[in-house]
Amino acid sequence: MDANSKKIKMKKYITYRKYYKQVMNEAQKSHFNDLFDTKANTVKQLWNNLASVASLSKSKNKSNINELLINNNRITDPKMISDLFNNYFCTVGEILQKNI
Q1: Residue 18 phi, psi dihedral angles, 5° rounding
Q2: Per-residue confidence (pLDDT) for residue 55, from 0 to 100
Q3: 42-50: which pairs have CB atoms within 8 A and are 24 or more residues apart?
Q4: What is the DSSP-derived secondary structure letter of residue 59?
Q5: What is the pLDDT of residue 2?
Q6: 14 phi and psi angles, rounded to 5 deg
Q7: Comparing C-alpha atoms, which of 45, 23, 44, 26 is closest to residue 35?
Q8: φ, ψ for residue 69 (rounded to 5)?
């Protein structure tokens, strides 16, 4: 591929990227205008829409950790798992600070 061909492709790419961003911004603007149209939605629906956009709703997906493998030791006791996580998150800042 010669230099002239690269320049032409780069120019086409930049033009397409600019057009894509413009179309994307217009579509996004239209979507949010429809989503938050006060004439078409009730106050409750507006709040629900806001919560869904801002991820304010509580996640119903809960992950339980049934076992941990630490230094080739399998830990299944929930209290021990909780204590290990607590210890890790309480000391991670100090450990990172020492490594700086």
Answers
A1: -60, -45
A2: 74
A3: none
A4: P
A5: 85
A6: -65, -40
A7: 45
A8: -115, 110
